[in-house]
TrEMBL record:
Primary location recorded for the protein, binned into one broad class: membrane
Compositionally biased residues, Polar residues: 171-186
Residues annotated as transmembrane: 430-450
PANTHER family xrefs: BULB-TYPE LECTIN DOMAIN-CONTAINING PROTEIN (PTHR32444)
Domain Apple: 339-419
Name the record gives this protein: Uncharacterized protein
Length: 564
């Protein structure tokens, strides 16, 4: 940034000015109509923490009036004329005849104004050591405008972000367009709703990041053990004004947070040893932190590969997209809920506990105790999940479950409603292990055949034969062919046979195999003839016709049908 280079040149000037003004009994932290500042001049706050002047950002040749830290490295924390830059060094910051603080160009045109006064005869603007620029009516000393009320992209200690429903006024941060252009970019940070105070980062009008609900200590969906919401952060709800204020009070002046032009909110503090700013916390640590990365009913876990999985009982809405790593379409329920079938004779739905989750968006809240929370949710078919936090109370969801993430620590348990049959499926612990074993066998089969050109493999011939005879279980070692596991084993073999189909284009890809094995994809296609033949050519035409018929006729479902 340019101001850095300028300081060396400006400092002696300021020193002289300082002597001059202090002789007159005035501090050099103040702008008046008789003491404007021009390009290459600056004012410095009383304790020397901040500086105000003209600067040129990044590679731009445009000039702006801003406030920056008075340190070796000088992040700009506020910009006045972000929408109307100067293109030369003829700018002036002064107090207008009406008593406004204004930025003028060489032709005396107003590029920016505080725009609050129309009659003040004696006003001045002072840069405080908090970084706040304050316009005062000198006659009575009352502040009539503050830069803290009109933040750019940075929050300094003592600043407020607010939302007032009555006056429809919001104070929020807006990112720079890019590091060379402070004009408003596409990201903003502010208060989402004042009914249940929630913070948010938006990309234009779409939510880009959300930290979840406030539990009177922290936002429960802000990832990581540390978050800037721990540093003197406070929420004030003014019921009379129908307003909410987020106040930030950092332990010292050398901390701030900024909304970057990439939409990441970063907390930085000053490293005196390195003479630089280091990032203490940032909102986007993995892709999972991007709002709705895995779509509806998808759950994100940055420690897994792929990071998106459908919640148990759900499958990808669009399998092709999902397998390509485009998860935005999310997942859909595999089976209707019991309550949706309007069958009251059957088993009730049940809740599956998902431990330590970032809770989904679109929550409804009530203050009933946990047992009643659960009961009310169970008895209302439109309630698809609930969670409970001692401070927040009972939380329920109705439409969809969006923006869910698995956290490694902290966070809250989420209970999702599933058809009884879906839950019964894996209640038995052994069931978790067996599919893995059989899965490995299946993979071995796949690997073996994919990397082998042998066309006379006895095992495949046998498997294919038994499959066609509907007797595939004869292939399985009696030890693992416990009837409970048969559906899983059948699924594995079917996937194995799909992997060794004659035509490569018919074979599933590895991500698809994974989805098939963990039952994200419920309906498996019927395997076609595998790549073994006595007489390749003779069979080609036949198997083509055969497989076409099979595939178009029906899909075999091998998932477990519940009620055990
Ligand atoms: C500037 O700071 C000094 C001490 O740090 C204080 O005595 C003085 O009143 C301050 N001046 C103004 C104008 O705030
Ligand atoms: C300035 O331009 C150079 C070269 O084009 C580029 O590498 C650098 O990132 C730019 N800096 C900013 C702040 O845009
Ligand atoms: C000042 O306020 C008026 C009316 O509220 C608005 O039309 C005008 O654009 C504002 N001017 C500046 C420089 O912000
Ligand atoms: C400034 O203060 C004087 C004295 O209290 C008052 O008469 C005048 O109306 C004030 N001006 C503005 C614009 O607030
Ligand atoms: C403006 O206010 C200051 C402080 O009250 C006072 O010293 C000064 O004389 C006033 N100037 C004018 C022109 O009224
Ligand atoms: C923000 O939104 C714009 C326009 O809708 C889009 O082109 C861009 O990719 C989004 N940025 C991010 C980081 O998602
Ligand atoms: C400011 O406070 C933070 C948190 O207590 C601390 O980590 C940091 O070193 C402090 N910075 C300075 C310059 O004192
Ligand atoms: C992802 O899928 C959505 C929904 O079908 C589509 O609108 C979007 O363009 C896809 N994104 C990419 C990168 O393919
Ligand atoms: C209701 O559910 C039970 C148990 O799941 C089942 O046996 C019965 O056939 C179902 N009745 C209807 C009408 O679907
Ligand atoms: C079920 O929940 C929905 C959504 O919360 C609510 O509108 C509806 O009144 C509830 N129905 C009953 C019978 O409680």
């Amino acid at each position: 940034m340019e101001p850095r280079r300028r300081i060396i040149f400006v400092a002696p000037v300021l020193f002289l000015l300082s002597c001059f003004y202090s002789n007159l009994g005035n501090a050099i932290d103040t702008i008046t109509s008789s003491r404007p500042i021009r390009d290459h001049e600056t004012i410095i706050s009383n304790g020397s923490a901040f500086k105000l002047g003209f600067f040129r950002p990044g590679n731009s040749s445009n000039r702006y009036v801003g406030i920056w830290y008075n340190k070796e490295s000088e992040p700009v924390v506020w910009v006045a004329n972000r929408n109307k830059p100067l293109n030369d060094a003829s700018g002036v910051v002064t107090i207008s005849d009406h008593g406004n603080l204004v930025v003028l160009n060489g032709q005396n045109e107003v590029l920016w104004s505080t725009n609050v006064s129309n009659s003040m005869t004696n006003a001045s603007a002072q840069l405080l050591d908090s970084g706040n620029l304050v316009l005062r009516n000198n006659t009575n000393g009352i502040s009539i405008w503050e830069s803290f009320q009109e933040p750019t992209d940075t929050i300094l200690s003592g600043m407020k972000v607010s939302s007032n429903k009555k006056t429809d006024q919001k104070v929020s941060l807006t990112s720079w367009k890019n590091p060379s252009d402070p004009s408003p970019g596409s990201f903003s940070h502010g208060i989402k709703s004042s009914d249940i105070p929630e913070a948010c980062i938006w990309n234009e009008s779409r939510v880009y990041w959300r930290p979840g609900l406030w539990n009177s200590q922290t936002f429960i969906g802000a990832n990581g053990r540390y978050s800037f919401y721990n540093d003197g952060f406070q929420i004030t709800v003014d019921d009379q004004e129908d307003a909410v204020f987020f106040t930030y009070t950092f332990p010292n002046l050398s901390m701030f947070f900024v909304l970057s032009s990439q939409g990441i909110l970063e907390e930085r503090d000053w490293d005196e040893g390195k003479k630089n700013w280091k990032v203490r916390y940032q909102t986007l640590q993995t892709e999972c932190d991007v709002y709705g990365w895995c779509g509806a009913f998808g759950s994100c876990n940055p420690q897994k590969n792929p990071i998106c999985r459908c919640l148990r009982g759900f499958q990808p809405k669009n399998i092709e997209e999902w397998n390509r790593g485009n998860w935005t379409s999310g997942c859909v329920r595999k089976r209707l809920l019991q309550c949706e079938r309007r069958n009251l004779t059957g088993e009730k739905d049940r809740f599956l506990k998902l431990a330590k989750m970032k809770l989904p968006d679109f929550v409804e809240r009530s203050s009933v105790p946990v047992e009643i929370c659960r009961e009310q949710c169970l008895n209302n078919c439109s309630c698809i999940a609930y969670a409970y936090d001692a401070s927040i109370g009972c939380m329920t969801w109705t439409e969809s479950l969006t923006d869910i993430q698995k956290f490694s620590s902290g966070a809250v348990d989420l209970y999702i409603r599933l058809a009884h049959s879906e839950l019964a499926k894996k209640d038995n612990k052994v069931l978790i292990i067996i599919p893995i074993v059989v899965g490995i066998i299946t993979f071995a089969i796949c690997a073996f055949f994919l990397h082998s050109n042998r066309c006379d493999n006895v095992f495949t011939v046998q498997a294919w034969k038994l499959w066609n005879e509907n007797n595939i279980l004869a292939l399985i070692d009696p030890v693992i062919s416990n009837p409970c596991f048969q559906p899983e084993i059948l699924r594995c073999i079917q996937v194995g046979l799909l992997c060794v189909q004659e035509f490569v284009k018919d074979r599933p890809t590895m991500p698809t195999v994974v989805s098939m094995l963990n039952s994200e994809i419920v309906d498996l296609p019927t395997p076609k003839q595998p790549a073994f033949t006595e007489s390749q050519n003779a069979l080609d035409a036949k198997s083509f016709v055969q497989s076409k018929q099979k595939c178009s006729v029906n899909y075999v479902t091998l998932s477990v049908i519940g009620g055990r």
